[in-house]
Write a structure and sequence with these properties.
Elements lengths: L3 H4 L15 E6 L4 H16 L7 E7 L5 H15 L6 H8 L2 E5 L5 H18 L5 E5 L6 H11 L10 E6 L6 H14 L5 E4 L6 H11 L2 H4 L7 E10 L7 H26 L8 H14 L6 H6 E7 L1 E3 L2 E3 L17 E7 L9 E8 L5 E8 L18 E7 L3 E9 L7 E9 H4 L7 H11 L8 H19 L7 E4 L6 H8 L9
Parallel strand pairs: 1-2, 1-4, 2-3, 4-5, 5-6, 7-12, 8-17
Antiparallel strand pairs: 7-13, 8-11, 9-10, 11-12, 13-14, 14-15, 15-16
Length: 511
């Protein structure tokens, strides 16, 4: 067996992060699915791993008539259903003892005054030191009221020697003007350094590992540029349809629901320059530079570089499924896109001339999100002389569901005949480190409690992303965009998306 100092010296230098300060987490809109499915299971798992503060209380702020005892029971059932690990009854009992339910309307100033008194009482009983983390998990229509009442009640102002922070759940507006208004409302209550705009994709281990993959491995960083990269593909695919979200999706569509936030964030992590250090602002400075270097898509540029489509009836996962227009709550003549594919260019020195192909779609055959770096082919000599050119090298970063990294390369098959076939080196987070991969919300909640904003979106990131997306939407609304295309459920999207890549001699990678 090799020793850590000989074969794996870095393992001896691993340092556990400091446990955050004691605090109270206040969740607005706590009776919603986000709290049950993600937040409480994430907090429980952090507690099971010993990563929560020495004293942590959770105050669930919502309008429904409930008691703390009754709500704890509801959350216990949800934790047993959605936790990534089995729930230990004794640990849950100790954890749940510090969960409290606070009933109030989001618009009622008196509710925030009573909340302040409850928080002061928790500080005295549990020693949480006046540290508060406010999580807006409500409908975005309530954000303004929550922010104004936090400001007016003084709850957003940190006490002496303590901190007060805000987590904002997406969507961060619906366009640039609304995002700017939301950011101004946030800034009136909380300084930017205490504002954490959450994008759960950035909490996934593989997304976090992108910087390590690039900047801690000489072999990759040396090739990570236009000289060696043919194209980059970012795909987010899901077999689900609109389900019960028609009311939201009809006003959003795939472009605003996924591209503006999740996929542009992944693009930034893929394309960014090395930051000066690992501080939050140094990393986010480099991400903003990528957004600023994105070639704008407007007018006829949208028609040439964007495909929008909608799923029709089809067959998926062994059953017939209806078209988008037949889904409950969807207009029969809806032109909302359930699929979008884009050809993007980053006009800087590193990426000049390299197309970035981004696609997202519902009712596709498989669920998954990945980034594929396709490298340029070898010269047409030696093994590549014949017309049947070899498959190019491809580095694939799998974001979900099977988080990991794979690399495709050429190898000779055994035998007397020279026959070359592609082989794959594969790394899986779930099996390589002997421990379960934490859920994204676990890392993000822990970072917010610790005051580390590296994996959260900054105000200028959000606004630059909306500015880019708004240019595309304006072309759609002005009639300069391509027509709405269609694809059958269970397929990999419309034929026009394949033709978009064919213009650059490329094909979509199958997940």
């Amino acid at each position: 067996m090799s020793t850590p100092t000989e074969s794996n010296p870095l393992r001896t230098d691993l340092v556990n992060r400091a446990v955050p300060d004691p605090c109270v987490l206040v969740i607005f809109g706590a009776t919603g699915d986000l709290t049950r499915r993600k937040l409480i299971p994430a907090l429980y798992n952090l507690a099971a791993d010993g990563n929560v503060p020495s004293s942590l209380a959770v105050v669930c702020f919502a309008r429904r008539d409930k008691t703390s005892e009754g709500f704890r029971e509801e959350l216990g059932e949800a934790a047993r259903k959605y936790s990534r690990r089995p729930v230990n009854d004794e640990l849950w009992r100790r954890f749940a003892a510090n969960i409290f339910y606070h009933q109030s309307n989001f618009h009622d100033a008196a509710g925030y005054e009573s909340l302040g008194r409850e928080l002061d009482g928790i500080d005295e009983r549990l020693g949480t030191g006046g540290n508060r983390l406010f999580y807006m998990a409500s409908s975005p229509t309530e954000f303004d009221a929550i922010l104004e009442n936090l400001r007016a009640s003084g709850l957003s102002r940190a006490k002496a020697g303590a901190w007060s922070r805000l987590i904002v759940e997406k969507p961060f507006g619906t366009d640039l003007p609304s995002a700017t208004r939301l950011n101004e409302a946030v800034a009136a209550a909380f300084p930017e350094k205490d504002t954490f705009r959450i994008d759960h994709y950035l909490g996934k281990e593989t997304a976090q590992n992108l910087m390590v993959l690039r900047f801690a491995n000489t072999v990759f960083e040396a090739l990570w540029n236009h000289r060696y990269v043919e194209n980059v593909q970012i795909t987010a695919s899901e077999p689900l349809g609109v389900e019960t979200r028609a009311g939201y999706y009809e006003t959003s569509g795939a472009l605003r629901d996924m591209v503006q936030n999740h996929l542009l964030q992944l693009l930034c992590l893929t394309a960014m320059e090395p930051p000066a250090d690992l501080g939050a602002d140094a990393v986010r400075d480099e991400k903003v530079k990528v957004l600023r270097a994105l070639r704008p898509l407007t007018g006829t540029g949208v028609a040439d570089n964007v495909i929008r489509a909608q799923y029709t009836a089809g067959f998926i996962n062994g059953r017939d499924v209806p078209s988008y227009r037949e889904e409950p709550g969807v207009a029969p003549d809806s032109v909302t896109e359930t699929y979008v594919a884009l050809r993007l260019h980053i006009d800087n020195w590193r990426w000049a001339g390299v197309p970035f192909f981004v696609r997202v779609g519902k009712r596709l055959p498989k669920s998954g999100t990945e980034i594929a770096i396709q490298f340029r082919g070898t010269p047409p000599v030696l093994f590549n002389r014949q017309s049947q050119l070899q498959d190019p090298n491809v580095l694939v970063i799998r974001i979900q569901p099977d988080e990991g990294i794979s690399f495709r390369m050429a190898a000779k098959m055994p035998g007397a005949v020279l026959q070359i076939e592609p082989v794959k080196m594969d790394f899986h987070y779930g099996t390589s480190f002997g421990k379960a991969t934490p859920e994204a919300y676990e890392r993000l909640l822990l970072d917010a409690m610790s005051g580390d904003a590296t994996l959260f979106a900054r105000r200028d990131e959000v606004e630059h992303a909306w500015k880019f997306v708004d240019g595309i939407r304006a072309a759609w609304q002005d009639g300069e965009a391509p027509r709405l295309d269609f694809y059958p459920a269970g397929s990999w999207g419309p034929r026009e998306a394949d033709e978009l890549l064919a213009q650059d001699g490329a094909v979509w990678r199958r997940l």
